[in-house]
Design goal:
With 168 residues, the chain is an all-alpha fold. It folds into 2 domains: 49 residues, Arc Repressor Mutant, subunit A (Orthogonal Bundle); 117 residues, Orthogonal Bundle (Tetracycline Repressor, domain 2). It is built from 9 helices and no strands.
């Protein structure tokens, strides 16, 4: 029972920390996170000894959710729809990462680590849809679109262009 409670507390801390880290002001109070999660500050520190550990864990949890969503999307949708929905989830992931940028600054995040986790997830959808494209290349194109655009409208147009280019 204690292990389940500890896991539940950790998950709740990550959820609350995500909300705080993506808030507009970017101010993060560890005490406030612990309080809102319904645990003591000692419990927070047992799971995440430093602020950087907490931020890194939130980021990794978001990335893991995105990677896991590929299989879930394919179970619920045809590959074309799953790909579009995964692109949308990727955009939300990048948006959250941008919002957490200040908190992520002191945390070493590896692009290679992100690619290693996200590329196979995207490749799963591409393979299911018969797309003849490398997950690594499509991921790089998605990142490029989001880095190069200044408006949601332009991002949407370029994402649609990428999807059209992938169509077999």
């Amino acid at each position: 029972m204690a292990r389940k409670d500890a896991e539940r507390n950790r998950d709740r801390l990550l959820e609350v920390a995500h909300d705080h880290l993506t808030a507009a002001d970017g101010k993060v109070s560890l005490e406030g996170i612990a309080r809102e999660a319904g645990v003591g500050i000692g419990t927070l520190y047992r799971h995440f000894p430093t602020r950087e550990d907490l931020v890194a864990a939130v980021y990794r949890a978001e990335r893991a959710r995105l990677a896991a969503s590929a299989r879930t999307l394919l179970e619920a949708h045809d590959p074309d729809t799953a790909l579009r929905l995964w692109f949308d989830a990727f955009a939300a992931y990048l948006g959250a990462k941008r919002e957490m940028a200040e908190a992520l600054r002191p945390v070493a995040t590896s692009r290679a680590e992100s690619r290693a986790e996200l590329t196979p997830a995207l490749q799963l959808i591409l393979d299911a849809g018969g797309y003849r494209a490398s997950g690594e290349d499509v991921l790089a194109a998605l990142v490029g679109i989001h880095l190069a655009t200044d408006s949601p409208e332009q991002t949407e147009r370029l994402t649609a262009l990428l999807l059209a280019g992938l169509a077999t």
